[in-house]
Amino acid sequence: MLIPHPILGPRDAQEFTYLGPATLLDRPDGMAEGAGQAMFDYLYPRDNPAGPHRELWYHEQGDRSWLIVTRDTVTHEITGAELVKP
Amino acid sequence: MAYSGFRLFAEALRGHRGWRPLWRDPEPQADYDIVIVGGGGHGLSTAYYLATRFGQARVAVLEKGWLGSGNIGRNTTIIRSNYLLPGNQPFYELSMKLWEGLEQDFNLNAMVSQRGVLNLCHTDAQRDAYRRRGNAMILSGADAELLDAEGVRAMYPFLNFDNARFPIKGGLLQRRGGTARHDGVAWGYARGADRRGVDIIQHCEVTGFLVEDGVCKGVETNRGTIRAAKVGVAVAGSTGRVMAKAGMRLPIESFALQAFVTEGLKPCIDGVITFGAGHFYISQSDKGGLVFGGDIDSYNSYAQRGNLPVVEDVAEGGMALMPMIGRARVLRSWGGVMDMSMDGSPIIDRTGIPGLYLNAGWCYGGFKATPASGFCFAHLLSTDTPHEVARAYRLDRFARGALIDEKGAGAQPNLH
Ligand SMILES: Cc1cc2nc3c(=O)[nH]c(=O)nc-3n(C[C@H](O)[C@H](O)[C@H](O)COP(=O)(O)OP(=O)(O)OC[C@H]3O[C@@H](n4cnc5c(N)ncnc54)[C@H](O)[C@@H]3O)c2cc1C
Asked: Of B299, B323, B341, which closes a domain?
């Protein structure tokens, strides 16, 4: 599998480690009202779609950037990769 | 039709013309007391125990493909009860006890072979952890033996004991663990359930749930609506997809797991061996092929096949453990889709929708659970109370923080 890195071009997926869905970027405020429920919703239930999936890959053996990759979980076709905005 | 040595002899004399199909191919009826979605190992064993132990006769199993087309026909057939945590170990030990009586129970040779499962350890800390695990196993009524390096050498002299990085220091042995013939398990349960009146309906895909006033009253399928007082879902790797049709998001992600088999070789590995420094496990089938596997592919997948990096990783694990494997040629490899839960442990529970029940989250270890999973799911479906050993497998444990995380890996399924 090749991941089209926005800066480095196509890179072997083996250079990356995989974390999970891109929704993991939206960490709720642990101090806010109702944080318990918000943390649960953030951490455990997943869409787990059969089809396009926005997901986080870390270029560990490369430039150490985090990417949001859009990949089909049935065909493994990758239709996009963008840098995670800081 | 019952199997016996006498029957086999009589059939041999008659040119084996008397054997009949093991189960009927019925049309779906309009309604049932209980409908099980998914004709894998867990769905079939649930139906079998519903019929044999809980007196439920109006039961159907709906399978979208053919019987045994999912993970029940794809796994590496290892059975064991060597867990640590109190939420898990009594459940898996019940499963082991059911395995021990299974073939007599359903009168089919499932080739249950208690050839021993040996987990190798490579550091002092790992040995301590195995000692603790062994004690937990013994407390649950299971068997466990801690071997030193010489004990391991006496069993498997060909292992790479003096590997500079991962020397073998010993191992935790469960002699009652072993393997079983996965297809035979599906067939035995299917035949046993069918004989007691359960309708096993293949090529019947559930496409939605019939929910009236917030209560589940049946399922929509490609062969029409089927009403049921209770619906139990046991679709393993498809759990996310199927439960989404009931509007549910679950603490589960789907990943592909691969397995490999070599050409047939002379007998050389008579038990199951697992490498403790990487993820690699191996046994030898009765036909002689070495059957082995390792990690799941690291990213979400609904493809019933894996990718090459894991093949390489598994091969490296094999070479580190037993260099002689480098001479064997791989004949086949395949993959199945695993329902990886957020703590690595399963769910057998009611759902937020009355009448709808869930059996899922088996990760890569649900084959050994097949008997107990079916037994406990049948218990829940027919009595509406969880079986004693499955009480921890609640869907709400994630919200309560009562996780059963054997590996301590946290909410990241690809690490379990
Ligand atoms: C390569 C590999 C190796 C493994 N090795 C081991 C091992 O050594 N030991 C161990 O304990 N476990 C092992 N496992 C795990 C084990 O196989 C699974 O956890 C277990 O089989 C899952 O339960 P099941 O048998 O009910 O699943 P399945 O056989 O997958 O049954 C689920 C069924 O649901 C059906 N289905 C899906 N959607 C629908 C729908 N909409 N309508 C109707 N039916 C539907 C599917 O077609 C499928 O037949 C392994 C798995 C794999 C893939």
From this structure: B341
